[in-house]
């Protein structure tokens, strides 16, 4: 166990360095902007009565997010709402610092609120026995509001709908919201991760009660969302690097990000991986 813990901490340190490298902010479409690091995402949705920010990256990512917001000409103090896709240190780690810098209200799902409020402590569903060694910990923010599946978070004309797509965490949240780009309205969908972690169990003993059923419901939920703009917590999930390159030469800058096919392929790929892991744990049955 000690060796596993050491290897995990070394992996986490390397991951933190590689995924907290400053990146240029990107105007995706309408009032939607990318303000994350090179691989861990954060999205800014701007509005006349204030802005909404989804995800805070690692603790060390928070200053990079603030710098990107400023580079776009916006003020961190105008961020009034902080949202999160899920309660892992690479997406919730920077929330406390961003909350301090902005004064924004933090909304967390019922399913993930306990983990976020404890700064990732005792997250056995994600990290197994390693959680008792402090693996997955992050600075705990103050949770101002909790929400349930189907709730809508509003700020002036901005409206983001929460879809609980649990499995990766008990309260994993996919956010959908309209983006007005010129004379068209596009539905942006920021998909919560569907990744199966190495410690997850789907047999008689589950990582948390109902995790397998949660994954099953999540695939159905996501397939029923008519996504136009495909977003996700990790840049590689929605091929951000390629889309940035294509945008540089596109007549319509938003077009590379309008990617229903990529969205469907991601869900299909994740479900295939999930079903393969379930079959493996059941001995090929």
Number of domains: 1
Q: Indicate the CATH architecture.
A: 4-Layer Sandwich
Average per-residue pLDDT, rounded, comes to: 90
State the helical fraction: 25-40%
The percentage of residues in β strands lies in 15-25%
User: In the CATH scheme, what's the topology name?
Assistant: Metallo-beta-lactamase, Chain A
Name of the CATH class = Alpha Beta
Tell me the Rg in angstroms.
18 Å
> Stretches where pLDDT falls below 50 for ≥5 residues?
none
**Number of strand segments:** 12
Distance between the termini: 30 Å
Q: What is the number of helical segments per DSSP (H or I, 4+ residues)? A: 9
Strand order of the largest sheet: 1-2-3-4-5-6-7
Report the sheet with the most strands, covering strand number, pairing sense and barrel closure. Answer: 7 strands, mixed
Class of secondary structure makeup: alpha/beta
């Amino acid at each position: 166990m000690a060796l596993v813990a050491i290897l995990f901490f070394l992996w986490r340190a390397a991951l933190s360095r590689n995924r907290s490298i400053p990146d240029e902010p990107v105007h995706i479409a309408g009032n939607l902007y990318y303000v994350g690091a090179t691989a861990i995402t954060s999205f800014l949705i701007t509005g006349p009565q204030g802005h909404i920010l989804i995800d805070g990256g690692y603790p060390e990512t928070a200053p990079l997010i603030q710098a990107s917001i400023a580079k776009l000409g916006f003020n961190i103090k105008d961020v009034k709402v902080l949202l999160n896709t899920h309660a892992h240190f690479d997406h919730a780690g920077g929330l406390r610092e961003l909350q301090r810098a902005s004064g924004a209200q933090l909304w967390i799902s019922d399913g993930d609120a306990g983990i976020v409020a404890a700064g990732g402590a005792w997250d056995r569903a994600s990290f197994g026995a390693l959680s008792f060694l402090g693996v997955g910990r992050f600075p705990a923010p103050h949770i101002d509001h909790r929400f349930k599946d189907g709730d809508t978070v509003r700020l002036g004309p901005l409206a983001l709908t929460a879809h609980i797509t649990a499995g990766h965490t008990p309260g994993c949240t996919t956010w959908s919201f309209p983006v007005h780009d010129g004379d068209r309205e596009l539905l942006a969908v920021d998909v919560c991760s569907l990744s199966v972690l190495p410690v997850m169990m789907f047999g008689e003993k589950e990582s948390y009660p109902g995790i397998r059923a949660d994954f099953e419901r999540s695939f159905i939920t996501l397939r029923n969302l008519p996504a136009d703009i495909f977003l996700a917590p990790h840049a590689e999930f929605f091929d951000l690097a390629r889309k940035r390159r294509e945008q540089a030469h596109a007549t319509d800058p938003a077009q590379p990000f309008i990617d229903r096919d990529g969205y469907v392929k991601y869900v299909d790929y994740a479900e295939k991986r999930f079903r393969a892991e379930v079959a493996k744990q059941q001995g090929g049955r």
